[in-house]
Task: inverse folding
């Protein structure tokens, strides 16, 4: 029994982390970007917004850190009492679960999350939950977030809400974000949004004079 507990303490957290991470990866790939979407060339009216590969790199780094922590805890537990080993095993499992789910979030953010724009149609594939479709004419509100120079006509992110209660976010880390921002500005008929854009453009022009 003591030998089994020792082996569990050494390897249990690592195995659990890898199993959950593998499940997360398979789930992310199963709902990932389609081949035809990869072939879309960024052009006005037809493009895909998605996060860069750095999110996959971040996921891999988090997984590596979690595995190292689990290994360190297992190594530390060698030669300890059974009670200490049991407590360390629980801690390893906790580290493994948190690590695997953080890995899953970032890997799904890279492989799954995307916004596909085809003329007026918008298809949204969230990190978690079901995908949905909407259109620029169905946008109820747009919250633009601009950091730094408030006079800039370019935003860092936009939070969009639809008339049927859906919400999604796009930010400048995503490919084709500027195209999406320009089309939102042109096609979403919201008086407050138009007024805000115009004020920012006027302020920006005054700064150039």
Result:
């Amino acid at each position: 029994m003591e030998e089994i507990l020792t082996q569990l303490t050494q390897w249990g957290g690592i195995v659990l982390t890898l199993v959950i991470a593998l499940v997360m990866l398979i789930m992310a790939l199963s709902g990932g970007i389609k081949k035809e979407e990869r072939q879309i060339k960024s052009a006005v009216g037809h493009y895909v917004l998605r996060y860069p590969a750095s999110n996959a790199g971040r996921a891999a780094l988090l997984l590596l850190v979690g595995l190292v922590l689990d290994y360190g805890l297992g190594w530390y537990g060698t030669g300890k009492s059974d009670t200490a080993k049991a407590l360390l095993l629980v801690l390893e499992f906790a580290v493994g679960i948190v690590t695997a789910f953080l890995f899953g979030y970032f890997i799904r953010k890279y492989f799954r999350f995307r916004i596909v724009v085809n003329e007026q149609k918008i298809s949204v594939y969230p990190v978690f939950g079901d995908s949905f479709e909407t259109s620029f004419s169905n946008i109820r509100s747009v919250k633009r977030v601009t950091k730094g120079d408030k006079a800039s006509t370019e935003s860092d992110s936009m939070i969009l809400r639809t008339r049927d209660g859906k919400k999604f976010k796009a930010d400048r880390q995503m490919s084709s974000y500027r195209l999406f921002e320009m089309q939102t500005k042109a096609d979403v008929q919201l008086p407050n949004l138009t007024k805000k854009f115009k004020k920012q453009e006027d302020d920006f022009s005054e700064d150039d004079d």
